[in-house]
């Protein structure tokens, strides 16, 4: 995401050290070879899908585990990770029914250049730490996506996101990473986290820069990039030159939120193993179903698309609860940013899934977890359980949410919209939005409605719920109790069971008052 390079700026104390020579890059000792994962193995692209060696479709559903891009150059840190990376930590992840983990990497720490890693550690130690982490994830049946997250050119340290991979070091980085993991077909390479050439400069030809790179700083087609750029074709060629056949993910422009030119500029790959990477947050330009349908769906019809980062920065799940069903309907996998405890576990202004490393979800994380559990058959509300290789088809969503047919009530100061987001035989996913149409702030709320066809709620997020017969009572949680005048709360979602007919409730009361 565009702002996450600033998440940890207060942690960094930049240490000025002499740059290591480029000869040091080529003479680094390789780490212990990575062990192949037990499953799924043989990942490869077939048409617009990813399949394993047995021909089963694999759709990634996972989390981004940040930390390995910045801990290695954080003064005083005694580890290359932010938080635990043991079996207990992995088991907590698995309790969310994920099948993949994305691991961001630091170019300088991997290559051992520009004074990184810091704190007396070596590149060999950093590399071995990453290998060990990948092995542990693989041993738990998790596919791993490795991405070049932080980089820089020349003697500049890799302490944040740059607009493109640098020609100085990125090819050396991918040569080394590819050689390390090329025997492991359960590892996917995300060639560059979030390209953004031309994002702030109309003179840069973004897609040409993206594909072809440049030979010098501020040179066409990368006029706004202050270093020579390694284009995507160069990085594809670099990886394939090692003999690695791993799937390669390529993020689009505008911090991977723009895929409009991806198909027209798709690099040539002799192995035909490329996937498009799409990042989407509630604050991105392409953050609506209309945009996704016009810009992302055409790409997904031709090649696999993986939403390598999804999320929202409002501590809620209203945005992703619209996004995920759309992605499911297109067969697009996704990973949520981020499985890392930030700001002491409190709800920050950034997409954080958990409040502690046992996996306690934030409000945003609760929505993500509930959706993953639904895909895996949690609560008996989805039609097919997910296998350990992540090959289960997802439920087919309805075309559009179904608004509540409640007639307006004179004098009401609330408006409720009830939507069916997903529906399948025996189960459905719904959402509730509550608008305060009055002139006073609502401090604490209880919403009551009745199902007409015997439906039952099996799981809810961003609210608590009780049901007696057909009557359902939904109550706020501590963090969403207040609804200001004119404001709308749209983060409440739920899973339910139905049989035969699934009509919307006819009326709603909020704190005893009839709503329109």
Description:
- This protein is an alpha/beta fold and 516 residues long.
- The chain contains 11 helices and 21 strands.
- The chain has an 8-stranded parallel beta barrel, surrounded by 5 helices. Strands 16-17-14-20-21 form a 5-stranded antiparallel sheet, with no helix packed on it.
- Helix 10 packs parallel to helix 11.
- The relative contact order is 0.11.
Give the terminus-to-terminus CA distance: 38 Å
Give the oligomeric state of the chains in this entry, treating copies of one chain as homo and distinct chains as hetero.
single chain
Please count the helical segments. 11
pLDDT averaged over residues: 85
Write a concise keyword list for the protein shown above.
11 helices; eight-stranded parallel barrel; alpha/beta; single chain; five-stranded antiparallel beta sheet; 516 residues; 22% strand
